[in-house]
Design a protein that fits this description.
About 15% of the residues are buried. The chain has one domain. It is built from 5 helices and no strands. The two termini are about 40 Å apart. It is mainly alpha-helical.
């Protein structure tokens, strides 16, 4: 019995069962590769499931804080202000609601980057790029070693 049946716990238990109980009974090299790939996917999904709502909410908040400073700097764009207004907080913590809110905030970030592309030295552009870089770093962290799991034989 699992006392804390989170998605992360369930996925990590599946990965452990696959590695410890199934893999020892598989002799076929291609079967070993499939097991290693599935183990890696399960562990990546476990990490994401444990944190993705918090990550999206925090990034959305960071984007909108930057957007507030853009609006305060007299940036005049109806498209931008409309996108900011549409990026309201999610109604619930249901993953679909959070993802929808995150996508709307991502549109705000995209508009900021487009608007500042001709002034790459501006503080707004630097801060928007840093938010984008943070997103990329997180994705790399989640998928760290993809294709390099033991037995896959792939390289970067």
């Amino acid at each position: 019995m699992i006392s804390g049946p989170t998605t992360q716990t369930i996925l990590l238990n599946c990965a452990r069962e696959l590695t410890n109980k199934v893999s020892p009974h598989v002799d076929d090299p291609s079967g070993k590769v499939v097991i290693a790939m599935l183990d890696h996917v399960l562990r990546n999904a476990a990490e994401r499931s444990a944190h993705e709502i918090q990550w999206m909410i925090q990034e959305r908040q960071d984007i909108l804080e930057l957007a507030a400073s853009v609006i305060a700097s007299d940036f005049n764009s109806a498209k931008f202000e409309s996108a900011v207004a549409d990026a309201a907080p999610p109604i619930t913590l249901n993953l679909d609601d959070v993802v929808a809110s995150y996508r709307r905030a991502s549109e705000v970030l995209s508009i900021m980057l487009e608007a500042t592309i001709l002034s790459p030295e501006s503080e707004i552009h630097h801060r928007a790029l840093e938010l984008l870089s943070q997103r990329v770093r997180r994705e790399k962290q989640i998928t760290l070693g993809w294709g390099e799991a033991e037995g896959l034989g792939a390289t970067r």
